[in-house]
């Protein structure tokens, strides 16, 4: 079961949270996580298939999905998290910065290794944990 | 708690499911649902605020979010659901068609009424219920 | 001469039909067909050219054009076709579903074979035939 | 009957023509024309409906469709037309430039008057006429 | 004269700097600044023109340009700046976070006041100043 | 030092100029130039690295950056330059047309040769020279 779901079960938070820039007030780290799971699955399929056409397609799509991971994380960082959150979690800036780097050229974009995608997923889960704590507060 | 989460808790399914066109095998109706929740929140904020600038911005963003709902539902319909699913659930074609229409001009795009967004959410939950049943099978 | 044009010549229909989600009332299956013709031409050029840079570019662009085929067909299915159409043409749901699958991973995205593109074009023509019949009625 | 269709009937040209940047060799001025017809229909609906929500949505969508008109015309100008065409049709540069301006702020974007859309359509037809002459040659 | 230009004149740095995620190594805060200047100009034109069509268009375009400001700043934060930069400039995380917030709902997206755009421009200049110092080092 | 900067230093022009289709009045050839510098850097990295994954990624990103070059140049041609400019600079139409072709299939998209990118940069500088002259007038 995915970590964000486990966390969402054991914490009594409201369900819906802002994610567009109205702002509508619906944010959910699941958006970044779903794309990162896709990136990992792409890496696994890439390693298991040596057909050059398939591999080129895998890299094209991995590039797009990794960009979506970055975007969803940037939105949380800018639009959801507020100064009090950064004060309470002094590591939060660096954490999101590292996660977005792990979705970029030095991470999931630049590598087709599923272990790199796993590191990205772990970072997203760290952010999700903080996210859900702040929702609970 | 959102329905797709409740369902995901009471059914022993695998967690990750395809959503890009490699295909990676990671699909999740939560993507459509999160955008639709955003649409509903936008409608509520629209009704509660008569400032013309705010209202114009709300309509701009509602248009984008509704389009994302349509897109995520189309992806499920074309990329996740297969002929055996349509055979087992004969109402599935019409259901997705109605849901996408409810996200369009005759639904959430064409109206700022939260009740219209509620109807869209209900349709998405019907699709999600079938989705999770097929994951379990 | 492309089929949609032949059909348009032998049937006395109005020329302009809705395609945006206002809705403006201008729909035309030619939009999907033009992109699918592009996909076929890309496949032919791919097969005729072994230069790896050219082939990678061909796959990048084929991915984009195939996505546009899917999008234009989805718009017809959701925004143009109405319940009476689905009643009169019970095969219409499956037809559009198959056509969009033929533009995706199990079709034109996943293959650089011009014959796959031909199958996609044939499906689009079946949809276009129904489309123009409904315009005439 | 739209002009490009009339022309396509009376001239013995090949059907498919390049439009992506492989290049695939499939170009068709119908792409710009369909979007411009949409723009015109939006203007007409705008004038006939004073509901502020509807009008805002009309302006949002008109902006997008007008941008597509510009894009399709730019593609013809850069990717399809070659130096010999510009030599044979010395007015062609100015013609496309005026057409794209008519799709922008000083034309269909900046105005909701159907007559402005008509001027845009007329310019597109002038370009289409030249286009089909060059296909024939 | 814009600040980034003044700075670029008085410091002997290399001209080209990474901005895509290859990474290509071409970054330039001018990208964010040009979009923010556009946002400011839109605000000024909005205040000077009470035509409702014009105002709606201004808000549509301001939304897009503000999003581009956010995107360009996010790219600098994730792709250009590295741990040693964050160590040397401990305020850098908060600075970029504030700048992106100033381009969003609580800033240039949510307001048509040119003074809000001025604050955004000032923040971008602070980031640009640090950027050019790091290029020089 | 990049040419547009040198020119901007020796000519007493206003700094900010239109680039969105409000129009906001902020145009700057630097936008096209930054993307073209990126294209050149990508070509150089491509030639220096034989890893197939890296090369595929380089081609994916080069395709996107070249498209942005075309887009920024098209915007200048349609939205900034006016009939009096085309009258004063009779070569301007052909110049922009050649520059956009050099960013497309017969130029930077179709080739990974840094010299092709250099030709593109030189054309952009010719356009920038005219642009700044017209700002000065």
TrEMBL record, chains A, B, C, D, E, F:
The keyword Oxidoreductase applies. It holds the Pfam family Sod_Ni. Keywords: Oxidoreductase. The keyword Signal does not apply. Its EC number is 1.15.1.1. GO terms for molecular function: nickel cation binding; superoxide dismutase activity. Signal peptide: none annotated. It is an enzyme of class 1 (oxidoreductase). Coiled coil: none annotated. This is Nickel superoxide dismutase. It comes from Phytomonospora endophytica.
């Amino acid at each position: 079961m995915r970590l964000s779901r486990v966390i969402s079960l054991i914490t009594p938070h409201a369900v819906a949270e802002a994610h567009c820039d109205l702002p509508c007030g619906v944010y959910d780290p699941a958006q970044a996580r779903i794309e990162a799971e896709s990136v990992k699955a792409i890496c696994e399929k890439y390693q298991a298939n040596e057909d050059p056409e398939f591999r080129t397609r895998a890299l094209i799509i991995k590039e797009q999905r990794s960009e979506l991971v970055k975007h969803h994380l940037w939105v949380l960082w800018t639009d959801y998290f507020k100064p009090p959150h950064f004060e309470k979690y002094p590591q939060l800036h660096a954490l999101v910065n590292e996660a977005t780097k792990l979705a970029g050229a030095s991470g999931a974009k630049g590598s087709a290794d599923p272990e790199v995608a796993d590191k990205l997923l772990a970072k997203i889960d760290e952010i999700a944990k903080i996210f859900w704590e702040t929702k609970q507060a």
